[in-house]
Amino acid sequence: MEIKSILLSSIRVDGGTQSRASLYQNAIDDYAAAIQDGASFPPIIVFYDGKHHWLADGFHRFNAHRQIDRMEIDAEVRQGTRRDAILHSVGANASHGLRRSNDDKRRAVLTLLNDAEWSKWSDREIARRCAVSDKTVASLRPVTSEIRSEERTYTTKHGTVATMNTAAIGKPKVIENDAGDSDQYDPWTPRTIAPAEQIEQAQAKAERQAQQAEFDRQREEHTAALPPEIQAIEAAKKSAIETRKSKPAEIGLTDADRIAELEEAVRVLEAENAKLTAENKLYGEMRVQFEQGGFENVIAGKDEEIRALQTRLYRESEDKASWMRSAKYWQDEAKKLGYSRNTVIDLETGEIIDG
């Protein structure tokens, strides 16, 4: 492994090593402008197989350099094949660079699941490689398994190998005319769905499941990070909701009673929300400090606040002492001129009002 400057023209980006769902032109533009202003970016990562440099990490940086007609770019060169580059790319940007979207994560997982070798790995291993949850991998695996099971290779009469989709074998055939209408339409017979549409529907369903799994994971992660007091409140509310669901509807409860009950529940929740919002505002900065450096960072932050307050108190005390000395001086000067303690002077005109 070494870091050196290499020609952009020597880097291969056409080998399926780009694991994002898409590149973001706004990010490329921002990177390009920053590079022109002299900004320094981390080197990209390429795998060298003895002939080609396969780009594995840094596609936005690479395109930013190419956009402003740079000839070379700093790269960390690792020894490896195109497949090594692909395997590295599926986990790239999990902890650095432009944050991955859910589509990026799904594409990374499907890259491994659609591969004959990598798809044999466990959900846990694929999740580790792609830096996602096991649930995400598990929800996407049935789609790729279904697609592979419906594909069968065979040799044509010309000696070439082709792929045959077997999903529709044994199913009733629906003939469509030029207008797209079925010539054998029977309203009592379920519509036959084409294999491509079945795959598309299965993929859409898997994507929704994967997205929901990711949302559940993020929610669980967020809940686990909440203070114990807030977790207790959330658990109590969840328990109350489940208890309410399990009870039969009260006999004789009118709509007005139910509305009043719900309004009271809303009032209680709004009060709790206001309380939690205030607590979050109070402890929000401490939480950020804790996430950045633990309790030591929180204590250091509080020490800095105390130091700033002590400095302010010392400065204001000095100001007060200075004003007291100044007032004493002028009081003495006034006495020398014959003014008493009860003398009142109009500060605007300088005239004596009472003396």
Number of strands: 9
Read across the widest sheet, the strand sequence of neighbours is: 1-5-3-4-2
Instruction: Give the count of helical stretches.
Output: 9
Level-2 CATH architecture of the domain at 101-169 and 193-225 = Orthogonal Bundle
What would you call the shape?
flat
Low-confidence sequence ranges: 154-158, 165-191
Overall pLDDT score:
76
Structural notes for this entry:
The chain is an alpha/beta fold. The chain is built from nine helices and nine strands. Strands 1-5-3-4-2 form a five-stranded mixed β-sheet, with helices on both faces. Strands 6-7 form a two-stranded antiparallel ribbon. Helix 4 packs across helix 6 and helix 6 runs antiparallel to helix 7. The protein is flat. About 10% of the residues have low confidence. It comes from Pseudaminobacter salicylatoxidans.
